[in-house]
Design brief:
heterodimer, A: mainly alpha, ABC transporter involved in vitamin B12 uptake, BtuC, 12 helices, B: alpha/beta, Rossmann fold, 6-stranded mixed beta sheet, 3-stranded antiparallel beta sheet, 10 helices, membrane (chain B), zinc transport (chain B), transport (chain B)
Chain lengths: 267, 291
């Protein structure tokens, strides 16, 4: 069954969507969209450095994403620039430095389009093992810290006062996000990872009553987008990563027809 | 000096001589307080007097720049912060909010919601609640875990007056039933004063503290809240001996502005060393709030 590249693509996509759904909910709830984007963009720099030092690209991406997250948190605390500007600065400079470094290594042949937009059809069995192994760890940690993280999202003060460690959990979340970026980069590419974090989660918001429902619906919506996108990419011969994102947008449009839960006319 | 906790009660939180500095400004300084099981301690004071900051120090949300905070180990705390800003992208029913920091049975949830009078809103989305209903939900959430210490930072904001009285009664009932300690911040002077064991009057430092009668009778209290407020509970009146001027300095009854002569009335309990230079002079702004 795994011999077919298309089957592997479907299995890989479903696995990634299962992780981006719940993780993406936290991105939306905590307004970290641009933050996630910045970490994803830094992945190019991670790949370049990994190539330079002959390391696994995934390790490089993970390490640089964590580093960028730590730098961001540190710079935000110093607080002379707005988070917005800081994110813009880091997001695009890491992307640019990565691209420049890659071009300076002429002996390395690199599929730049694949890095930026993903190449889900080139997924190997080893990649599948990584997606599902890594994904299980990411989702496991998220489930384990779900209540503390959610409490910290509602109110850091309540979480802290009632015995949780919201600062530490924020760092754990960034590590999970870095892991996801490393895992999903090959499938979605650095430019489209954030889309799969945000779009399924916002689509799920319309029909969810509780945070847990939203996480579940986001995962399911993302999976539907993967199936739909991959089918379209095969049928219309369109690039797979962008097709999945377009399909996710379709899911979002569909749930937009449902009146928004919890936000009645009086608000 | 007056010891405001009954001698047989052990404190569960003790704050001694704490201060917080931001940039070169002390938000609070030299604050002492302690709370025992079954005791209701109320912090009062004008805007920017450091009430929320003091509570955050006591709870370990903020770290003090000086002084010490001691909390009993494994203390269960129920906290209603001054402000909770939930993003509207987060779907949340009232029932789910009850389980924010711990698991609770459906019965416990029903009971807590009944106690604050919003049982009918169990399935409602939190974003649809009015300000007063949301406050009630937050109070229900804080009491559901049967905390050892209940901490409420202006818990009745947005609640109408009769609801206010009922909620303060509820807090008293919960204290009586569970024997928990209560730390309260409030503006509703006369409602709160009647239900409090210890009042701490804060203005960057502890201006005065003691039983409500004592504090209401003290000059510092009248100076901070006006003579009318003092009359609500004062058993007798005395002339207050200093007033806080708009620029933060202290003017004494004899017109003397010299800090060295900061005399206090017989009922004003200063259990700490004053630092007027810092603690008293730069309190024009509400301390940073969590958005």
């Amino acid at each position: 069954m795994l011999e077919s590249f298309f089957t592997r693509a479907i299995i890989a996509g479903l696995g990634v969507a299962a992780i981006t759904g719940p993780l993406g909910c936290f991105i939306v709830w905590r307004r970290l969209a641009y933050f996630g984007d910045t970490m994803a963009h830094s992945a190019i720099l991670g790949v370049a450095l990994a190539l330079f030092f002959s390391l696994s690209p995934m390790a490089g991406v993970f390490a640089i994403a964590v580093l960028v997250a730590i730098i961001l948190v540190f710079l935000q605390k110093r607080g002379s620039l707005s988070s917005d500007s800081l994110l813009g600065l880091l997001s695009h400079s890491t992307l640019a430095i990565g691209l420049v470094l890659v071009s300076l290594m002429p002996h390395v042949r690199i599929d730049l389009m694949g890095l930026l937009f993903g190449d889900i059809l080139a997924v190997s069995v080893a990649d599948l093992a990584l997606i599902y192994g890594g994904g299980a760890v990411v989702l496991g940690v998220l489930a384990w810290l779900w209540r503390p993280m959610l409490a910290g999202t509602v109110s850091e003060d309540i979480a802290q006062a009632e015995g949780f460690a919201p600062e530490r959990n924020k760092l754990v979340f960034m590590v999970l996000l870095a892991a996801l970026i490393a895992i999903a980069m090959k499938i979605l590419g650095v430019l489209l990872i954030t889309a799969m974090l945000i779009i399924p989660a916002t689509a799920a918001r319309r029909i969810a009553n509780t945070p847990e429902q939203m996480a579940l619906y986001a995962a399911l919506g993302g999976m539907a987008a993967v199936l739909l996108g991959l089918w379209a990419s095969l049928h219309f011969d369109t690039p797979s990563g962008p097709s999945i994102v377009v399909a996710a947008l379709g899911v979002f449009a569909l749930t937009s027809l449902v009146p928004l839960n919890g936000l009645s006319a009086k608000d | 000096m007056q010891n405001f906790t009954a001698p047989e009660r052990h404190p569960i939180i003790t704050v001694s001589g704490v201060g917080v500095r931001r940039e070169d400004r002390w938000l609070v300084r030299g604050v002492d307080l302690s709370i025992a099981r079954g005791e209701i301690v109320t912090l009062i004071g004008p805007n920017g007097s450091g009430k929320s900051t003091t509570v955050k120090l006591a709870l370990g949300i903020m770290a003090p720049d000086e002084g010490k905070v001691w909390r009993e180990k494994k203390l269960r705390i129920g906290y209603v912060p001054q402000r909770v800003a939930m993003d509207r992208s987060l779907p949340m029913t009232v029932a789910r909010l009850m389980a924010l920091t711990g698991r609770h049975s459906a019965n416990e949830i029903d009971r807590a919601l009944e106690q604050v009078g919003i049982a009918h809103l169990k399935k409602a989305q939190v974003h649809q609640l009015s300000g007063g209903e949301f406050q009630r939900a937050l109070i229900a959430r804080a009491i559901i875990g049967k905390p050892d210490l209940l901490v409420l930072d202006e818990p009745v904001q947005g609640v109408d007056f009769s609801g206010e009285v009922a909620l303060y009664d509820l807090i008293g009932q919960i204290r009586d039933a569970t024997g928990c300690g209560v730390l309260l911040i409030s503006h509703d002077l006369h409602v709160v004063m009647a239900r409090t064991d210890t009042v701490i009057c804060l203005n960057g430092h502890v201006c005065c503290s003691g039983s409500p009668e004592t504090v209401a009778a003290s000059g510092e209290y009248a100076a901070l809240f006006g003579p009318r407020a003092a009359e609500t509970l004062a058993i007798y009146r005395h002339e207050h001996n200093h007033s806080h001027l708009p620029d933060g300095t202290v003017k004494h009854a004899d017109g003397d502005l010299n800090f060295d002569h900061h005399a206090h009335g017989p009922h004003c309990d200063h259990s700490h060393a004053h630092d007027h230079e810092h603690g008293h002079t730069r309190q024009n702004q509400e301390p940073s709030r969590h958005a």
